[in-house]
UniProtKB/TrEMBL annotation:
The keyword Transmembrane helix applies. It comes from Acorus calamus. PANTHER family: BIS(5'-ADENOSYL)-TRIPHOSPHATASE (PTHR10151:SF120), ECTONUCLEOTIDE PYROPHOSPHATASE/PHOSPHODIESTERASE (PTHR10151). Residues 1-37 are annotated as: Disordered. This is Uncharacterized protein. The keyword Membrane applies. The chain crosses the membrane at residues 47-76.
Length: 491
Protein backbone atom coordinates (compact mmCIF):
# COMPACT_ATOMS: atom_id res chain seq x y z
CA UNK A 1 0.00 0.00 0.00
CA UNK A 2 2.81 2.40 0.83
CA UNK A 3 4.49 1.69 -2.50
CA UNK A 4 1.28 2.44 -4.41
CA UNK A 5 0.84 5.77 -2.67
CA UNK A 6 4.42 6.76 -3.39
CA UNK A 7 4.07 5.75 -7.06
CA UNK A 8 0.95 7.84 -7.50
CA UNK A 9 2.68 10.82 -5.94
CA UNK A 10 5.59 10.39 -8.31
CA UNK A 11 3.31 10.23 -11.34
CA UNK A 12 1.73 13.59 -10.45
CA UNK A 13 5.11 15.16 -11.11
CA UNK A 14 5.10 13.81 -14.68
CA UNK A 15 1.41 14.26 -15.57
CA UNK A 16 0.02 17.79 -16.01
CA UNK A 17 -2.38 18.72 -13.26
CA UNK A 18 -5.86 20.02 -13.97
CA UNK A 19 -5.03 23.74 -13.48
CA UNK A 20 -2.19 23.37 -16.01
CA UNK A 21 -4.62 21.89 -18.55
CA UNK A 22 -6.94 24.88 -18.05
CA UNK A 23 -4.07 27.27 -18.76
CA UNK A 24 -3.37 25.50 -22.08
CA UNK A 25 -6.97 26.13 -23.16
CA UNK A 26 -6.65 29.87 -22.52
CA UNK A 27 -5.55 32.25 -25.29
CA UNK A 28 -1.78 32.11 -25.69
CA UNK A 29 0.22 34.58 -23.68
CA UNK A 30 3.11 36.49 -25.25
CA UNK A 31 5.66 33.93 -24.14
CA UNK A 32 4.00 30.89 -25.69
CA UNK A 33 3.13 32.82 -28.80
CA UNK A 34 6.75 33.79 -29.17
CA UNK A 35 7.88 30.15 -29.03
CA UNK A 36 5.17 28.64 -31.14
CA UNK A 37 4.56 31.16 -33.90
CA UNK A 38 7.21 33.88 -33.85
CA UNK A 39 6.70 34.68 -37.52
CA UNK A 40 3.35 36.29 -36.75
CA UNK A 41 4.53 38.28 -33.75
CA UNK A 42 7.05 40.99 -34.36
CA UNK A 43 10.07 41.10 -32.13
CA UNK A 44 10.01 44.32 -30.29
CA UNK A 45 13.24 43.98 -28.35
CA UNK A 46 16.28 41.61 -28.26
CA UNK A 47 16.27 41.90 -24.46
CA UNK A 48 12.66 40.78 -24.26
CA UNK A 49 13.42 37.85 -26.55
CA UNK A 50 16.40 36.76 -24.41
CA UNK A 51 14.37 36.92 -21.20
CA UNK A 52 11.55 34.87 -22.66
CA UNK A 53 13.96 32.33 -24.10
CA UNK A 54 15.81 31.99 -20.77
CA UNK A 55 12.54 31.54 -18.88
CA UNK A 56 11.34 28.85 -21.28
CA UNK A 57 14.62 26.95 -21.14
CA UNK A 58 14.59 27.12 -17.33
CA UNK A 59 11.06 25.71 -17.27
CA UNK A 60 12.00 22.84 -19.61
CA UNK A 61 15.11 22.07 -17.57
CA UNK A 62 13.09 21.97 -14.34
CA UNK A 63 10.52 19.61 -15.88
CA UNK A 64 13.30 17.32 -17.19
CA UNK A 65 14.99 17.21 -13.78
CA UNK A 66 11.71 16.47 -12.03
CA UNK A 67 11.03 13.65 -14.51
CA UNK A 68 14.48 12.13 -13.92
CA UNK A 69 13.99 12.23 -10.17
CA UNK A 70 10.57 10.65 -10.48
CA UNK A 71 11.79 7.84 -12.74
CA UNK A 72 14.76 7.17 -10.44
CA UNK A 73 12.44 6.91 -7.45
CA UNK A 74 10.14 4.50 -9.26
CA UNK A 75 13.06 2.37 -10.41
CA UNK A 76 14.73 2.01 -7.03
CA UNK A 77 11.48 1.54 -5.14
CA UNK A 78 10.50 -1.34 -7.44
CA UNK A 79 13.93 -3.02 -7.70
CA UNK A 80 14.96 -2.57 -4.08
CA UNK A 81 11.87 -2.94 -1.85
CA UNK A 82 14.07 -2.81 1.24
CA UNK A 83 14.70 0.88 0.55
CA UNK A 84 11.07 1.73 1.18
CA UNK A 85 9.85 -1.18 3.33
CA UNK A 86 11.11 -2.63 6.56
CA UNK A 87 9.58 -5.87 7.87
CA UNK A 88 7.74 -5.45 11.14
CA UNK A 89 9.59 -6.57 14.27
CA UNK A 90 8.58 -9.94 15.74
CA UNK A 91 5.66 -9.77 18.13
CA UNK A 92 6.46 -9.50 21.83
CA UNK A 93 5.95 -12.47 24.12
CA UNK A 94 2.45 -13.18 25.30
CA UNK A 95 1.60 -12.24 28.86
CA UNK A 96 0.61 -14.98 31.27
CA UNK A 97 -3.11 -15.07 31.90
CA UNK A 98 -3.37 -17.49 34.82
CA UNK A 99 0.03 -18.74 36.00
CA UNK A 100 2.08 -16.42 38.17
CA UNK A 101 5.45 -17.39 36.69
CA UNK A 102 6.94 -18.92 33.51
CA UNK A 103 6.59 -22.70 33.38
CA UNK A 104 8.47 -25.12 31.12
CA UNK A 105 7.39 -28.72 30.51
CA UNK A 106 10.18 -30.67 28.77
CA UNK A 107 8.94 -33.92 27.21
CA UNK A 108 11.12 -36.67 25.76
CA UNK A 109 9.86 -39.33 23.38
CA UNK A 110 12.79 -41.76 23.33
CA UNK A 111 13.99 -42.74 19.86
CA UNK A 112 11.57 -40.43 18.03
CA UNK A 113 13.43 -40.20 14.73
CA UNK A 114 12.92 -37.02 12.75
CA UNK A 115 10.24 -37.75 10.16
CA UNK A 116 8.21 -40.06 12.39
CA UNK A 117 5.78 -37.17 12.84
CA UNK A 118 4.76 -37.76 9.21
CA UNK A 119 4.33 -41.55 9.39
CA UNK A 120 0.68 -41.26 10.36
CA UNK A 121 -1.92 -38.74 11.43
CA UNK A 122 -0.46 -36.79 14.37
CA UNK A 123 -2.95 -33.95 14.88
CA UNK A 124 -1.79 -33.07 18.38
CA UNK A 125 1.91 -32.97 17.57
CA UNK A 126 1.10 -30.90 14.50
CA UNK A 127 -0.97 -28.54 16.58
CA UNK A 128 2.22 -27.75 18.49
CA UNK A 129 4.17 -27.48 15.24
CA UNK A 130 1.67 -25.21 13.49
CA UNK A 131 1.25 -22.93 16.48
CA UNK A 132 4.82 -22.98 17.73
CA UNK A 133 8.45 -23.22 16.66
CA UNK A 134 10.15 -26.32 15.30
CA UNK A 135 13.61 -27.34 14.06
CA UNK A 136 12.93 -27.58 10.34
CA UNK A 137 15.25 -30.52 9.66
CA UNK A 138 15.31 -31.96 13.13
CA UNK A 139 17.29 -31.76 16.36
CA UNK A 140 20.93 -32.93 16.25
CA UNK A 141 21.90 -35.29 19.09
CA UNK A 142 25.34 -35.41 20.64
CA UNK A 143 27.75 -38.25 19.95
CA UNK A 144 27.38 -41.05 20.81
CA UNK A 145 23.71 -41.01 19.83
CA UNK A 146 22.66 -43.07 22.84
CA UNK A 147 19.91 -42.53 25.42
CA UNK A 148 21.75 -41.60 28.61
CA UNK A 149 24.48 -39.39 27.09
CA UNK A 150 21.87 -37.43 25.15
CA UNK A 151 19.28 -37.01 27.87
CA UNK A 152 21.94 -35.73 30.20
CA UNK A 153 23.33 -33.38 27.52
CA UNK A 154 19.85 -31.92 27.10
CA UNK A 155 19.59 -31.46 30.86
CA UNK A 156 23.07 -29.94 31.36
CA UNK A 157 23.99 -28.28 28.06
CA UNK A 158 27.27 -30.24 28.16
CA UNK A 159 28.89 -32.70 25.78
CA UNK A 160 29.34 -36.22 27.25
CA UNK A 161 33.05 -35.84 28.11
CA UNK A 162 32.12 -32.85 30.28
CA UNK A 163 29.04 -34.24 32.01
CA UNK A 164 30.60 -37.65 32.50
CA UNK A 165 27.99 -39.99 31.00
CA UNK A 166 30.01 -41.06 27.96
CA UNK A 167 27.95 -44.19 27.22
CA UNK A 168 25.03 -46.17 28.60
CA UNK A 169 27.60 -48.55 30.11
CA UNK A 170 31.29 -47.92 30.77
CA UNK A 171 34.13 -48.48 33.22
CA UNK A 172 36.08 -45.86 35.13
CA UNK A 173 39.75 -46.60 34.32
CA UNK A 174 40.96 -45.12 37.61
CA UNK A 175 38.66 -46.85 40.09
CA UNK A 176 37.64 -49.80 37.95
CA UNK A 177 34.01 -49.16 38.89
CA UNK A 178 31.33 -49.87 36.32
CA UNK A 179 28.52 -47.50 35.35
CA UNK A 180 25.11 -48.73 34.26
CA UNK A 181 21.76 -47.06 33.73
CA UNK A 182 20.55 -47.89 37.24
CA UNK A 183 23.49 -46.13 38.90
CA UNK A 184 22.53 -42.98 40.85
CA UNK A 185 25.86 -42.33 42.54
CA UNK A 186 26.56 -38.59 42.00
CA UNK A 187 30.25 -39.26 41.34
CA UNK A 188 29.30 -40.28 37.79
CA UNK A 189 26.96 -37.39 37.04
CA UNK A 190 28.95 -34.21 36.49
CA UNK A 191 27.69 -30.76 35.53
CA UNK A 192 24.51 -29.10 36.75
CA UNK A 193 21.23 -30.39 35.29
CA UNK A 194 18.21 -28.12 34.89
CA UNK A 195 16.35 -29.43 37.94
CA UNK A 196 19.39 -28.58 40.05
CA UNK A 197 19.74 -25.12 38.46
CA UNK A 198 16.06 -24.36 39.00
CA UNK A 199 16.20 -25.45 42.63
CA UNK A 200 19.35 -23.40 43.23
CA UNK A 201 17.37 -20.30 42.23
CA UNK A 202 14.66 -21.01 44.80
CA UNK A 203 12.16 -22.32 42.22
CA UNK A 204 10.32 -25.62 42.22
CA UNK A 205 11.23 -28.42 39.78
CA UNK A 206 9.60 -31.77 39.11
CA UNK A 207 10.91 -34.75 37.15
CA UNK A 208 9.18 -37.83 35.77
CA UNK A 209 11.67 -40.49 34.63
CA UNK A 210 14.42 -38.34 33.10
CA UNK A 211 17.86 -40.02 33.15
CA UNK A 212 19.90 -38.51 35.97
CA UNK A 213 16.96 -36.91 37.75
CA UNK A 214 17.04 -39.42 40.61
CA UNK A 215 20.60 -38.45 41.49
CA UNK A 216 20.73 -36.44 44.73
CA UNK A 217 23.23 -33.71 44.08
CA UNK A 218 23.71 -30.08 45.07
CA UNK A 219 20.42 -28.47 46.14
CA UNK A 220 18.39 -31.17 44.38
CA UNK A 221 17.12 -33.77 46.88
CA UNK A 222 14.75 -35.63 44.50
CA UNK A 223 11.70 -34.92 46.71
CA UNK A 224 9.15 -37.72 46.71
CA UNK A 225 6.23 -35.57 45.49
CA UNK A 226 8.16 -34.03 42.62
CA UNK A 227 10.71 -36.70 41.64
CA UNK A 228 9.49 -40.08 40.42
CA UNK A 229 11.71 -43.15 40.69
CA UNK A 230 11.94 -44.91 37.36
CA UNK A 231 9.40 -47.65 36.76
CA UNK A 232 8.86 -48.53 33.12
CA UNK A 233 5.56 -50.26 33.86
CA UNK A 234 3.79 -47.00 34.75
CA UNK A 235 1.25 -46.36 31.96
CA UNK A 236 1.86 -43.32 29.82
CA UNK A 237 -1.59 -41.98 30.69
CA UNK A 238 -0.74 -42.03 34.38
CA UNK A 239 2.46 -40.11 33.76
CA UNK A 240 0.55 -37.39 31.91
CA UNK A 241 -2.08 -37.21 34.64
CA UNK A 242 0.51 -36.80 37.39
CA UNK A 243 2.00 -33.82 35.55
CA UNK A 244 -1.44 -32.32 35.01
CA UNK A 245 -2.11 -32.71 38.72
CA UNK A 246 0.64 -30.21 39.48
CA UNK A 247 -1.59 -27.53 37.96
CA UNK A 248 -4.48 -28.26 40.29
CA UNK A 249 -2.92 -26.56 43.30
CA UNK A 250 -2.29 -22.86 43.90
CA UNK A 251 -0.69 -21.11 40.93
CA UNK A 252 2.41 -20.16 42.92
CA UNK A 253 3.03 -23.83 43.76
CA UNK A 254 3.11 -25.03 40.15
CA UNK A 255 6.68 -26.18 39.37
CA UNK A 256 8.60 -23.79 37.15
CA UNK A 257 10.28 -26.70 35.38
CA UNK A 258 8.93 -30.19 34.73
CA UNK A 259 10.11 -33.23 32.77
CA UNK A 260 8.10 -36.08 31.29
CA UNK A 261 9.56 -39.19 29.65
CA UNK A 262 8.17 -41.88 27.32
CA UNK A 263 10.17 -44.96 26.31
CA UNK A 264 8.45 -45.18 22.91
CA UNK A 265 9.05 -45.43 20.00
CA UNK A 266 12.63 -46.45 20.91
CA UNK A 267 11.35 -49.69 22.43
CA UNK A 268 9.70 -50.76 19.19
CA UNK A 269 12.52 -49.39 17.03
CA UNK A 270 15.08 -51.78 18.52
CA UNK A 271 12.80 -54.73 17.89
CA UNK A 272 11.65 -54.06 14.34
CA UNK A 273 13.59 -51.09 12.95
CA UNK A 274 12.19 -47.71 11.90
CA UNK A 275 9.93 -48.86 9.06
CA UNK A 276 7.52 -51.27 10.71
CA UNK A 277 3.80 -50.83 11.49
CA UNK A 278 4.71 -51.12 15.17
CA UNK A 279 6.54 -47.78 14.87
CA UNK A 280 3.51 -46.18 13.26
CA UNK A 281 1.32 -47.37 16.12
CA UNK A 282 3.82 -46.16 18.72
CA UNK A 283 3.99 -42.71 17.12
CA UNK A 284 0.18 -42.52 17.05
CA UNK A 285 0.13 -43.38 20.75
CA UNK A 286 2.66 -40.66 21.58
CA UNK A 287 0.43 -38.24 19.69
CA UNK A 288 -2.51 -39.35 21.84
CA UNK A 289 -0.47 -38.64 24.96
CA UNK A 290 0.34 -35.16 23.65
CA UNK A 291 -3.38 -34.68 23.01
CA UNK A 292 -4.21 -35.85 26.53
CA UNK A 293 -1.71 -33.35 27.91
CA UNK A 294 -2.99 -30.44 25.78
CA UNK A 295 -6.58 -31.24 26.68
CA UNK A 296 -5.78 -31.34 30.38
CA UNK A 297 -3.93 -28.03 30.24
CA UNK A 298 -6.82 -26.45 28.34
CA UNK A 299 -9.34 -27.69 30.91
CA UNK A 300 -7.30 -25.94 33.55
CA UNK A 301 -7.03 -22.78 31.46
CA UNK A 302 -3.22 -22.80 31.37
CA UNK A 303 -2.30 -24.24 27.97
CA UNK A 304 -1.31 -20.87 26.52
CA UNK A 305 0.71 -20.04 29.66
CA UNK A 306 2.81 -23.22 29.68
CA UNK A 307 5.88 -23.67 27.47
CA UNK A 308 5.76 -27.22 26.09
CA UNK A 309 9.01 -28.47 24.52
CA UNK A 310 8.77 -31.88 22.84
CA UNK A 311 12.08 -33.52 21.94
CA UNK A 312 13.64 -36.90 21.30
CA UNK A 313 17.12 -38.07 22.27
CA UNK A 314 18.19 -39.72 19.01
CA UNK A 315 16.92 -41.37 15.85
CA UNK A 316 16.91 -44.97 14.65
CA UNK A 317 18.21 -46.96 11.68
CA UNK A 318 17.47 -50.47 10.49
CA UNK A 319 20.06 -53.21 10.98
CA UNK A 320 20.23 -56.77 9.69
CA UNK A 321 22.51 -59.81 9.58
CA UNK A 322 24.25 -58.92 6.32
CA UNK A 323 25.60 -55.69 7.81
CA UNK A 324 27.97 -57.20 10.35
CA UNK A 325 31.71 -56.84 11.01
CA UNK A 326 33.46 -59.47 13.11
CA UNK A 327 36.52 -58.58 15.17
CA UNK A 328 37.76 -62.19 14.95
CA UNK A 329 38.25 -61.56 11.21
CA UNK A 330 41.15 -59.23 12.11
CA UNK A 331 43.25 -61.97 13.74
CA UNK A 332 45.71 -62.26 10.80
CA UNK A 333 46.69 -58.67 11.65
CA UNK A 334 45.89 -58.38 15.38
CA UNK A 335 43.88 -60.24 17.98
CA UNK A 336 41.38 -58.06 19.87
CA UNK A 337 40.30 -60.06 22.94
CA UNK A 338 36.80 -59.62 24.38
CA UNK A 339 38.15 -58.20 27.64
CA UNK A 340 39.63 -55.27 25.72
CA UNK A 341 36.23 -54.22 24.38
CA UNK A 342 33.97 -52.00 26.50
CA UNK A 343 31.27 -51.61 23.85
CA UNK A 344 30.80 -53.13 20.43
CA UNK A 345 28.07 -51.49 18.48
CA UNK A 346 27.40 -49.05 17.05
CA UNK A 347 30.19 -47.46 19.12
CA UNK A 348 33.28 -49.63 19.25
CA UNK A 349 35.27 -48.74 22.38
CA UNK A 350 38.50 -50.58 23.15
CA UNK A 351 40.81 -50.24 26.14
CA UNK A 352 43.89 -52.50 25.83
CA UNK A 353 45.78 -53.35 29.02
CA UNK A 354 48.77 -51.31 30.15
CA UNK A 355 51.87 -52.10 28.16
CA UNK A 356 50.03 -52.51 24.86
CA UNK A 357 50.62 -49.73 22.35
CA UNK A 358 47.22 -48.30 21.47
CA UNK A 359 48.71 -46.66 18.37
CA UNK A 360 49.91 -50.05 17.11
CA UNK A 361 46.48 -51.55 17.75
CA UNK A 362 44.81 -48.82 15.71
CA UNK A 363 47.33 -49.18 12.87
CA UNK A 364 46.98 -52.95 12.63
CA UNK A 365 43.18 -52.89 12.89
CA UNK A 366 42.87 -50.34 10.09
CA UNK A 367 45.35 -52.30 7.99
CA UNK A 368 43.15 -55.35 8.23
CA UNK A 369 39.90 -53.45 7.72
CA UNK A 370 41.28 -51.79 4.60
CA UNK A 371 42.79 -54.95 3.11
CA UNK A 372 39.66 -56.02 1.28
CA UNK A 373 39.89 -59.41 3.00
CA UNK A 374 37.64 -58.61 5.98
CA UNK A 375 33.93 -58.87 5.32
CA UNK A 376 32.44 -55.35 5.42
CA UNK A 377 35.77 -54.08 6.70
CA UNK A 378 35.52 -50.89 4.63
CA UNK A 379 32.54 -49.80 6.77
CA UNK A 380 34.56 -49.49 9.98
CA UNK A 381 37.29 -46.93 10.75
CA UNK A 382 39.27 -47.07 13.99
CA UNK A 383 40.76 -43.98 15.68
CA UNK A 384 42.83 -42.96 18.61
CA UNK A 385 40.24 -40.95 20.51
CA UNK A 386 42.24 -37.72 20.27
CA UNK A 387 42.23 -38.11 16.47
CA UNK A 388 38.48 -38.42 16.16
CA UNK A 389 36.77 -35.67 14.13
CA UNK A 390 36.64 -32.61 16.35
CA UNK A 391 32.95 -32.08 15.62
CA UNK A 392 32.16 -35.20 17.68
CA UNK A 393 33.44 -33.60 20.93
CA UNK A 394 34.42 -37.03 22.20
CA UNK A 395 37.93 -37.09 23.56
CA UNK A 396 38.31 -34.95 26.68
CA UNK A 397 37.61 -37.52 29.37
CA UNK A 398 39.57 -40.36 30.93
CA UNK A 399 36.35 -42.35 30.94
CA UNK A 400 36.46 -42.58 27.15
CA UNK A 401 38.60 -45.57 26.10
CA UNK A 402 41.68 -44.70 24.03
CA UNK A 403 40.47 -46.51 20.88
CA UNK A 404 37.15 -45.65 19.24
CA UNK A 405 35.71 -47.24 16.12
CA UNK A 406 33.16 -45.48 13.93
CA UNK A 407 30.95 -47.75 11.89
CA UNK A 408 28.87 -46.75 8.88
CA UNK A 409 25.14 -46.26 9.12
CA UNK A 410 23.24 -49.50 9.70
CA UNK A 411 26.31 -51.69 10.30
CA UNK A 412 27.06 -53.49 13.55
CA UNK A 413 30.17 -54.98 15.14
CA UNK A 414 30.37 -58.34 16.88
CA UNK A 415 33.21 -60.32 18.40
CA UNK A 416 32.67 -63.46 16.35
CA UNK A 417 30.28 -65.13 14.01
CA UNK A 418 27.21 -66.83 15.37
CA UNK A 419 24.16 -68.60 13.97
CA UNK A 420 21.67 -66.13 15.40
CA UNK A 421 19.56 -64.27 12.86
CA UNK A 422 18.05 -60.94 13.66
CA UNK A 423 16.85 -57.76 12.00
CA UNK A 424 15.94 -54.74 14.07
CA UNK A 425 17.07 -51.20 14.71
CA UNK A 426 19.94 -49.40 16.39
CA UNK A 427 21.31 -45.96 17.24
CA UNK A 428 24.58 -44.68 18.64
CA UNK A 429 26.09 -43.87 15.25
CA UNK A 430 27.83 -40.70 14.09
CA UNK A 431 25.49 -37.78 14.80
CA UNK A 432 26.11 -36.51 11.26
CA UNK A 433 23.83 -39.25 9.95
CA UNK A 434 20.39 -37.84 9.24
CA UNK A 435 18.83 -41.06 10.56
CA UNK A 436 20.11 -40.13 14.03
CA UNK A 437 18.23 -36.82 14.10
CA UNK A 438 15.22 -36.39 16.30
CA UNK A 439 12.61 -33.66 16.89
CA UNK A 440 12.42 -30.27 18.53
CA UNK A 441 8.92 -28.78 18.81
CA UNK A 442 8.20 -25.88 21.15
CA UNK A 443 4.92 -24.12 21.93
CA UNK A 444 4.45 -21.35 24.46
CA UNK A 445 4.35 -17.62 25.19
CA UNK A 446 7.90 -16.99 23.98
CA UNK A 447 7.76 -19.06 20.78
CA UNK A 448 6.58 -17.64 17.49
CA UNK A 449 3.61 -19.27 15.78
CA UNK A 450 4.47 -21.49 12.81
CA UNK A 451 8.17 -20.69 12.77
CA UNK A 452 10.81 -23.03 11.32
CA UNK A 453 14.39 -22.69 12.57
CA UNK A 454 17.58 -24.38 11.33
CA UNK A 455 18.70 -27.60 13.00
CA UNK A 456 20.82 -27.25 16.13
CA UNK A 457 22.52 -29.48 18.68
CA UNK A 458 20.62 -30.43 21.79
CA UNK A 459 23.23 -28.82 24.09
CA UNK A 460 21.48 -25.52 23.26
CA UNK A 461 18.31 -26.50 25.11
CA UNK A 462 19.72 -25.85 28.59
CA UNK A 463 20.29 -22.14 27.90
CA UNK A 464 16.93 -21.95 26.16
CA UNK A 465 15.09 -23.16 29.26
CA UNK A 466 16.99 -20.91 31.66
CA UNK A 467 16.28 -17.92 29.39
CA UNK A 468 12.55 -18.68 29.40
CA UNK A 469 12.58 -18.98 33.18
CA UNK A 470 14.68 -15.84 33.55
CA UNK A 471 17.42 -17.47 35.63
CA UNK A 472 21.20 -17.71 35.28
CA UNK A 473 22.43 -21.13 34.24
CA UNK A 474 25.66 -22.95 35.01
CA UNK A 475 28.56 -22.87 32.52
CA UNK A 476 27.89 -25.17 29.58
CA UNK A 477 28.75 -25.93 25.94
CA UNK A 478 25.72 -24.15 24.49
CA UNK A 479 25.80 -20.65 23.07
CA UNK A 480 24.66 -17.81 25.32
CA UNK A 481 23.25 -16.05 22.26
CA UNK A 482 21.17 -19.00 21.06
CA UNK A 483 17.99 -18.17 23.02
CA UNK A 484 17.89 -14.73 21.41
CA UNK A 485 17.82 -16.34 17.97
CA UNK A 486 14.75 -18.45 18.66
CA UNK A 487 12.65 -16.71 21.35
CA UNK A 488 10.29 -13.80 20.87
CA UNK A 489 11.36 -10.39 22.07
CA UNK A 490 10.72 -9.58 25.73
CA UNK A 491 10.20 -5.86 24.96
Amino acid sequence: MDNEMESNTSFSILTPSKPLQQQEQDPPNPSTALLSDHHHQPIKSPLLFSSLLFTSLLLLTSLSLASAVAFAFLYFSSSSPSLCYSPPPPPPIKTLSKLSHPTVLLISSDGFRFGYQHKTQTPNIHRLINNGTTADLGLIPVFPTLTFPNHYSIATGLYPPHHGIINNYFTDPITGDNFNMQNHDPKWWLGEPLWETVTRHGLRASTFFWPGSEVVKGPWTCPKKYCKQYNGSVPFEDRVDVVLGYFDGPADEVPSFMTLYFEDPDHQGHQVGPDDPAITNAVANIDRMVGRLIGGLEERGVFEDVTVILVGDHGMVGTCDKKLIYLESLEPWIKVPEDWVQSYSPLLAIRPPLGVSVADVVTKMNEGLGSGKVENGMYLKVYLKEELPERLHYSESDRIPPIIGLVEEGYKIEQKRSKKKECGGAHGYDNAFFSMRTIFIAHGPQFERGRKVPSFENVQIYNLVTAILGIKGAPNNGSVSFPGSILLSTS
